[in-house]
Specification:
Shape: flat
Structural class: mainly alpha
Order of helices and strands: HHHH
Number of strands: 0
């Protein structure tokens, strides 16, 4: 993960900006060096999306299912 993305994640956590955290964790998953790392970041994105009731939760869950990290 790039230093810039890490800094933006930390800032979003500090600000309590859950919508930004969904986007940023999804971006981190896209940029992850391994499937394990991608799954870790997507799980975080999914949790924040669920808490917000965000439409993205369905798409994120579908990715987790395809990765074998959630049951369909």
């Amino acid at each position: 993960m790039s230093g810039d993305l890490d800094a933006r994640l930390l800032a979003a956590h500090a600000a309590g900006d859950s919508a930004a955290l969904v986007r940023l964790y999804s971006d981190a998953a896209d940029a992850a060096a391994s499937e394990d790392a991608a799954g870790f970041f997507l799980t975080h994105a999914y949790i924040f999306a669920l808490e917000l009731g965000a439409a993205e939760a369905r798409q994120i869950r579908a990715r987790l299912v395809r990765m074998g990290r959630d049951t369909g």
